[in-house]
Write a structure and sequence with these properties.
The protein is of the alpha/beta class. The chain is built from six helices and 27 strands. The chain is 14% helix and 27% strand. The strands form six sheets. It has an eight-stranded mixed β-sheet, with no helix packed on it. It has a seven-stranded mixed β-sheet with strand order 14-13-12-24-25-26-27, with helices on one face. Strands 2-3-9-6 form a four-stranded antiparallel β-sheet. The protein is globular, with a radius of gyration of 22 Å.
Length: 485
C-alpha cells in the first residue's frame, strides 16, 4: 500500500525550457486528425471488489482512531479546506490541530459531528471541520483524534489565483474499490498532480444491499484516504450516489454521499451541495449535477446562468466543467443520456468559451474534437454536431476501475466528432502551464502498469488568439507526438 508521507510527491518536476521547439509545436494547434478507435483489448475485466479483509481497507490502530480522512476545498478561492473524518466508537474530539511545522501545531479549529442510519446500518461519527484564512502556496500539517490514537497528515494550499499560475489536476471517474481502482490511485500518485477532479460514482456501495451498503462506504473511505487526506478532491455525484431505494425504506436521494462528502457550495452562492464552483490557481471549475433538475427556471439552471457571468478570464483563464453524464459519447453504453443537459447548457458552454468538459458514467475513455450542436432544430434544422472553434473539448473518463467492468461497445463507424476512444481503465491529468496553454494526458491502466496513451496540447479558448510569448512559458517539456487543439 502506498502511503503519502512526502509532500514533494505532488510538487511536479522542474524541467528545462525549449522555447523554439515549443513555439513550433504550438503552431499546429488547429490541426484536426481523423478519429482513432484503439485496438487495445484489456485482458482483465470485469473487475471484482477487493475483499473486506484486504489491506487497502485496514482500520487504523488505536481505540476510536480517526479513519476515512479526506479533504476538499472549503471556499471559493482556495484559502480554506474542509477536513472530514470518522470515529467508529464514540464522537471523541471535534478539533483539528494544524500548523506549518510537522508535529508543532500553532492553531486549532472546532468542527461538528453527526451520524446517520441507512436501513439497519448506523454510521460512525462523521466529523467535519472548516479551516479558513490559510496562506496560499503553503504546506500545512494537521492532526485529528486524541491521545495515542491521534493521526497526522498534511496538505498543500494552491498558489494565489492568477492568470499564469501553473497547476496540475488529476481527473478520475467511476472509481470503485477494486484491484483496478487500486492501480488507478497508484498511478495518480506517480503523476505529481496536486488535486483531483472526480466526475462521480465513488464507492459503488449501492451494488450491495441492506447493511452492507454502509460497510462498503466505510471501506471506500479507508481505501481512498491515502490520497484524499493529502490532496483535495473536487467531486460531483453520479448515479451510484443516488441510492433511492424504497424497498429498504430509503427515499432520500444522495443521503450517504451528502453526509460523507461536504462541498463548499455556499461560497459560490449555490443552494445545493450537488452543484457549485471553485477557483483554484488559474482555473475556474464548475461542478454540475446530472441527476438534479437543470431545465429552465430550476435552481441549478439559474445558479449556472449567474455563475458563468462571474467568471473572470483575466484572473482565471481556464474554465473547466465537470459532470457525471457525458454530453457527447459514441459508446452504446448510456448512449444519448446526456442529451437533455446538452440541450439546456451547451449554448452557454460555447458562449462562455469553456475549455474542457469532463464526465464519467460510460466505463471507457473518449475524447472529442471541438464540436457543438447548438443549431439543432427538431423540425428540420441541423441535427448533428459540427466543428465549432468556440466549443469545449468533451472528455469521458468513466474508467477508474469499478466492479461493473468496461463499456467495450463503441458505435460503428466512429462519428466525426470523436477524436480518440478506448475501452480500458485509467486516469487523466491536466497540467495548466500558463494562460494560453495546457498539457493533457490520459494514462491507460494496462493490467496494473501505467501507459501514457492519449495526449494533446490544450489551447485556452479565451486567450487562443493571443500570440505566444517566451515569457509565458513555464517548465514546458515539448512532446512532439502531442496533438494540439
Amino acid at each position: 500500500m502506498i502511503i503519502l508521507k512526502d509532500k514533494k510527491i505532488f510538487m511536479g518536476s522542474i524541467v528545462p525550457r525549449f522555447p523554439l521547439i515549443v513555439f513550433i509545436l504550438f503552431n499546429f494547434l488547429d490541426n484536426i486528425h481523423a478519429g482513432v478507435t484503439s485496438s487495445f483489448i484489456r485482458s482483465e475485466w470485469p473487475s471484482d471488489d477487493m475483499p473486506l479483509d484486504n489491506d487497502a481497507f485496514a482500520v487504523p490502530n488505536g481505540y476510536n482512531a480517526p479513519e476515512q480522512v479526506h479533504i476538499t476545498q472549503g471556499d471559493y478561492n482556495g484559502k480554506a479546506i474542509i477536513i472530514t473524518w470518522v470515529t467508529p466508537d464514540e464522537p471523541g474530539s471535534n478539533q483539528v490541530k494544524y500548523g506549518k511545522e510537522e508535529k508543532n501545531y500553532d492553531f486549532t479549529a472546532e468542527g461538528t459531528v453527526k451520524s446517520y442510519t441507512f436501513y439497519n446500518y448506523t454510521s460512525g461519527f462523521i466529523h467535519e471541520c472548516l479551516i479558513d484564512d490559510l496562506e496560499y502556496d503553503s504546506t500545512y500539517y494537521y492532526e485529528v483524534g486524541e491521545g495515542e490514537s491521534a493521526r497526522s497528515f498534511w496538505f498543500q494550499t494552491p498558489p494565489k489565483i492568477g492568470p499564469n499560475v501553473p497547476y496540475k489536476f488529476g481527473i478520475i471517474g467511476d472509481l470503485g474499490q477494486t484491484y483496478n481502482s487500486r492501480s488507478t490511485l497508484n498511478h495518480y500518485v506517480e503523476s505529481g498532480a496536486q488535486a483531483v477532479l472526480h466526475v462521480g460514482d465513488l464507492s459503488y456501495a449501492d451494488k450491495y444491499e441492506y447493511d452492507d451498503m454502509g460497510v462498503r462506504w466505510d471501506t471506500y473511505g479507508r481505501f481512498a484516504e491515502r490520497i484524499q487526506a493529502y490532496n483535495p478532491w473536487i467531486s460531483t455525484a453520479g448515479n451510484h450516489e443516488i441510492e433511492y431505494m424504497p424497498y429498504m425504506d430509503e427515499v432520500v436521494p444522495f443521503k450517504q454521499y451528502l453526509y460523507r462528502y461536504p462541498t463548499p457550495y455556499a461560497a459560490s452562492e449555490s443552494s445545493s451541495p450537488l452543484w457549485y464552483a471553485v477557483r483554484r490557481a488559474s482555473a475556474h471549475i464548475i461542478v454540475l449535477s446530472s441527476y438534479s433538475p437543470f431545465v429552465k427556471y430550476t435552481p441549478q439552471y439559474k445558479w449556472l446562468k449567474a455563475e458563468f457571468k462571474k467568471v473572470n478570464r483575466w484572473k482565471t483563464p481556464w474554465l473547466i466543467v465537470i459532470m457525471h453524464v457525458p454530453i457527447y459519447s459514441s459508446n452504446s453504453a448510456h448512449y444519448m443520456e446526456g442529451e437533455s443537459m446538452r440541450a439546456a447548457f451547451e449554448s452557454w458552454f460555447v458562449k462562455y468559451k469553456v475549455d474542457v468538459v469532463f464526465a464519467g458514467h460510460v466505463h471507457a475513455y473518449e475524447r472529442s474534437h471541438r464540436i457543438s450542436n447548438i443549431e439543432y432544430d427538431v423540425t428540420g434544422g441541423v441535427s448533428y454536431p459540427v466543428p465549432d472553434k468556440s466549443a469545449p473539448i468533451y472528455i469521458t473518463v468513466g474508467d477508474g476501475g469499478n466492479q461493473e467492468g468496461l463499456a467495450s461497445s463503441f458505435n460503428d463507424p466512429q462519428p466525426d466528432y470523436s477524436a480518440f476512444r478506448e475501452a480500458s481503465y485509467g486516469h487523466s491529468t491536466l497540467e495548466l502551464i500558463n494562460k494560453t496553454h495546457a498539457f493533457y494526458h490520459w494514462n491507460r491502466n494496462d493490467d496494473g502498469k501505467k501507459v501514457a496513451t492519449d495526449s494533446f496540447v490544450l489551447r485556452n479558448q479565451y486567450w487562443k488568439k493571443r500570440k505566444l510569448e517566451e515569457n509565458d512559458l513555464h517548465a514546458i517539456t515539448p512532446t512532439p507526438e502531442l496533438d494540439a487543439y
